[in-house]
Amino acid sequence: MKPLAENVRQYLNITINYWAFTLSDGALRMLVVLYFYQLGYSPLAVASLFLFYEIFGVVTNLIGGWLGARIGLNRTMNAGLFLQIVALSMLLVPVDWLSVVWVMIAQALSGIAKDLNKMSAKTAIKTLVPKQQTGRLFRWVALLTGSKNALKGLGFFLGGALLSGVGFWFAILTLTLMIGCIWMLSLFTLRHDLAKLNRKPKFSEIFSTSSAINRLAAARCFLFAARDVWFVIALPLFLATSLQWDHWQVGSFLAAWIIGYGAVQALAPIIAKQLFPSASEVTQAFVWVLCLAFLMLLLALMMQFNYTAALIPGLILFAIIFALNSSVHSYLVVHFARDEGASMDVGFYYMSNAMGRLMGTVLSGSLYQSFGLTVCLWASLFMIVITLIITGLLPKQPLIVVNKSSPH
User: Fold this and answer.
1) Terminus of the chain with fewer CB atoms < 10 Å: N or C?
2) pLDDT of residue 97
3) Per residue, what are the HEC states of the chain?
4) Which residues contact 194 (CB under 8 A, 6 or more apart)?
5) Distance set, CA 23 to CA 124, 152, 153, 293, 363 (Å)
6) Residue-wise over 345-365: b if at least 16 C-beta within 10 A, else e?
7) Residue-wise pLDDT tens digits, 68-121
8) 272-322 pLDDT, tens per residue?
9) Distance between CA atoms of 327 and 215, rounded to whole angstroms?
């Protein structure tokens, strides 16, 4: 560990930065969904508030990787924090100013901020871990990804609790001050040349030429669309209206779901070592998507026959399987990425991730408003099947399996 001491410090700096941003992002998401629905917005109108968030996330991931290779990931990460401060500050205006267009612009900035931050954090890990230590790479990626989602879940709880406790305006002010402090700290702690290339990559290099990256990106797109088509808009509104849950109850359940999801992601390398001692990560990904398809089929059928008691247990199982699949994906993209200019491959991959979230968000609002939650679940199954087909087309050669040595 001695030669890695500086890298470990940078990893911790990046992780703390990423944690704080994710906490604010999850809280903001819950605040906007619940507050504007409370103001009388329809489910589709609430979904539209996140339209620019997801659209600009697509663009940011595509360009952000190229930008990180040119100017350094420390700058793209700090730029993300600054834009989040601006986005939150825009929501501190009087309530009469909070029109759909104004909130969409604020969410657009937040979407840019989030994906600059995420792309920077995920790519930086590849530069901090020696190339031969793939076991360590899987563990560090899994820990960052899992802890991020746990913090996002805590953010959901925080958003719901703040809305119930102090109201929308003071909740936004609290988040703004928190991110402001982290931004100032980050300016002085991140290494100034993090993943910056000696050459200036051309803009045309933002598109991946790797078939493995392209197929993995397509699978990621439909995987996250399959989650968000019921999770983003349909589920919280179903819990609040059909099941008559209070704001803090909705926020608490979604928080627990994401926290559990994140915990499973962080443990994915250990679980993989026990269940798949010799299988490649590609095989693992295929098995998890297959399990996800069977689970969603059962859940959709039960909801079709109004057996709503199956919803919560089914979604808990979904979180576990989805988390394992997502963690393997997060490792694979870092593993497949080129050594020089990894941020461009990772950015392209997360562009597809954002495209899936955009598709899922729009469908979540429109399908729920027109048909209800059950149709959203059937749509999720359809997208999982597409993910399964694409995953089957990933490279078949054995990849490096989980390192069985001590994590120390």
Assistant:
1) C
2) 81
3) CHHHHHHHHHHHHHHHHHHHHHHHHHHHHHHHHHHHHHCCCCHHHHHHHCHHHHHHHHHHHHHHHHHHHHHCHHHHHHHHHHHHHHHHHHCCCCHHHCCHHHHHHHHHHHHHHHHHHHHHHHHHHHHHCCCCCHHHHHHHHHHHHHHHHHHHHHHHHHHHHHHHHCCHHHHHHHHHHHHHHHHHHHHHHCCCCCCCCCCCCCHHHHCCCCHHHHHHHHHHHHHHHHHHHHHCCHHHHHHHHCCCCCHHHHHHHHHHHHHHHHHHHHCHHHHHHHHCCCCCHHHHHHHHHHHHHHHHHHHHHHHHCCCHHHHHHHHHHHHHHHHHHHHHHHHHHHHHCCCCCHHHHHHHHHHHHHHHHHHHHHHHHHHHHHCCHHHHHHHHHHHHHHHHHHHCCCCCCCCCCCCCCCCC
4) 10, 72, 73, 74, 124, 127
5) 20, 5, 8, 30, 25
6) bbbbbbbbbbbbbbbbbbbbb
7) 666 777 788 888 889 999 999 998 988 778 777 888 888 888 888 887 877 777
8) 778 877 777 788 889 999 999 999 999 999 999 988 888 889 988 998 999
9) 17
Q: Which amino acid is at 167?
A: G
- The per-residue pLDDT for range 223-268, each reduced to its tens digit, is 999 999 988 888 888 888 888 887 778 777 877 887 787 778 778 7
CATH class, domain 2-193+213-391, is mainly alpha
Indicate the length of the chain as a whole number.
408
Mean pLDDT, range 345-368, rounded to an integer: 82
Give the Cα-Cα-Cα angle 315, 230, 164 (nearest 5 degrees). Answer: 85
